[in-house]
Write a structure and sequence with these properties.
The structure is a homodimer of 249-residue chains. By secondary structure, chain A is mostly helical. Chain A has 2 domains: 7-72, Arc Repressor Mutant, subunit A; 75-205, GntR ligand-binding domain-like (Four Helix Bundle (Hemerythrin (Met), subunit A), Up-down Bundle). Helix content of chain A is 61%, strand content 4%. In chain A, strands 1-3-2 form a 3-stranded antiparallel β-sheet. In chain A, strand 2 (60-63) and strand 3 (67-70) form a beta hairpin. In chain A, helix 5 packs antiparallel against helix 8, helix 6 (123-139) packs parallel to helix 8 (170-185) and helix 8 runs antiparallel to helix 9 (189-205). In chain A, 45% of the residues are buried. Residues 222-244 of chain A have low confidence and may be disordered. Chains A and B meet through helix 3, helix 4 and helix 7 of A and helix 3, helix 4 and helix 7 of B. The first copy, chain A, binds a DNA duplex (30 and 30 nucleotides) through helix 3.
Chain lengths: 249, 249
DNA sequence: GCGACATAACTTGTATGCAAGGCATGTCGC
DNA sequence: GCGACATGCCTTGCATACAAGTTATGTCGC
């Protein structure tokens, strides 16, 4: 299901994070300690451990005596996450040595995955892959702290995009990714860094931050209708109304 | 005691992190759940929560049924942390807008703190401040995700420096900081970024990675002699043998 | 019918109890 | 004297019990 193995220890944390990055858990979704404990056949202690870790990563939050919820990033948080990604991704590419053939091939494999997901019109897989692209670039360095940072920021980016990106355009983003990949493959890291920075600007400017917190999502949240979707209603296809302006992650 | 307020929720986590950044807890120090629970007058549950969070930040680690320990970063981890800092700090400065007078003044206040600590020959405070400099630069942006990243990386850097930096030179580092500050104050962020990157290179190359894991620290660790220092033995002064080549964080 | 209040059924927060395993000490066999 | 083994104390791992608080429900008064 997941396009890539998550190198994480705790299976609960890993499963929850996978569900979020794959769009099965959306911002505002409620996470019951008891239900998770039953689902994973462990005690609440272990569930709380995993939720606490995710909380420190700003992926979930807890309201005292009320419950755990998948984070609903506000506009300020969205801006900060994008700014952080600009710094990290630009800094990484601008200071990195040109990639070797092994690393370029790994990225090329990812580009093929993106193309396949586009061809299959697999919306969930595509969202996940579009975010993964940036993680995979950093992964080629083998720098674990940096990879971790990128994973966290990407997970939060997915929440942001689920929250604010009403109509996205995966194709435009994919083309940006292709350009970044080409620069990396050509060994031109400076260009890759600049392209990456501009790409993030474009994605961010495509966000509809006017979608206020009193919109459908929060209403569903308030009405407790925000359980895990039954599946079919999130399996959207790449409809024709995705025009060329907005970008998908 | 701490040169700066840590914006952290949990007092246990905050206290432990402060003790580490101020050098009262060194790599290999043992952290007993029971003792911490008694010290903070809470149950082991809360202590384990805090330790788990610090574990996910790579500040402490647990050996099953043996105990919790302040992380002893190995050479590979040290290299990765420095490389990550290079990317993040370079990327931040290279993509940041020039600082306003408010931000420059805040940094100037920090520089004064560094000078005062040097004059007072306060080694512990100085180590803390030298790491804090880089955090404070990013703090001026108000970007919380990035600040968090820098705080984590800086905490790990302090562990690295306690582990590998046998004889440090705070003065050389301070001069580097002065140069970076001057560039920022002049609005030349590009130069500041380059200086910051070079500074990290210099600090890293000053590490004595040949101090193998079978050295004094690990021996003390093995022999369980690695309790919290009694105080006096870590209150070193800036001795004259700190020559101009190595740099303090 | 409708509003206010009591109550019951949830939620998380925290402490505690017990299980499982590591490590040092002491003891027994030789 | 010395080595192997057993024992007991220590550690963390985990589940559970209970406390505290929030929300929904039902009921009573009007």
């Amino acid at each position: 299901m997941s396009p890539r193995k998550l190198t994480m220890q705790d299976p609960i944390e890993k499963t929850l994070l996978a569900a979020i990055t794959e769009g099965r858990l959306t911002p505002g979704s409620r996470l019951s300690e008891n239900e998770l404990a039953k689902a994973f056949a462990v005690s609440r202690t272990k569930v709380r451990e995993a939720l606490t870790r995710l909380q420190s990563r700003h992926v979930v939050s807890v309201q005292p005596r009320r419950g755990w919820f998948v984070n609903i990033p506000d506009a300020a948080e969205a801006a900060e996450v994008f700014a952080a990604r600009r710094s990290v991704e630009y800094g990484f590419l601008a200071t990195a040595a040109p990639f070797g053939s092994t690393e370029v091939n790994a990225l090329a494999a990812h580009m093929a995955e993106e193309r396949r997901a586009i061809a299959q019109e697999d919306r969930a897989m595509l969202t996940c892959l579009m975010g993964d692209f940036h993680v995979r670039i950093v992964e080629q360095s083998g720098n674990r702290p940096l990879i971790e940072v990128m994973r966290n920021l990407t997970a939060r980016t997915i929440l942001i995009s689920l929250r604010y990106q009403s109509n996205r355009n995966a194709l435009a983003s994919h083309e940006d990714h292709c350009a970044i990949f080409d620069a990396i493959a050509a060994g031109d890291m400076t260009t890759a860094a600049a392209l990456s920075r501009d790409h993030l600007d474009d994605v961010e400017s495509g966000l509809r931050i006017d979608i206020g917190p009193s919109s459908l999502d929060t209403l569903r949240h308030t009405l407790r209708l925000d359980q895990v979707p039954t599946g079919a209603d999130r399996e959207g296809t790449l409809s024709n109304d995705t025009i060329l302006h907005d970008r998908d992650i």
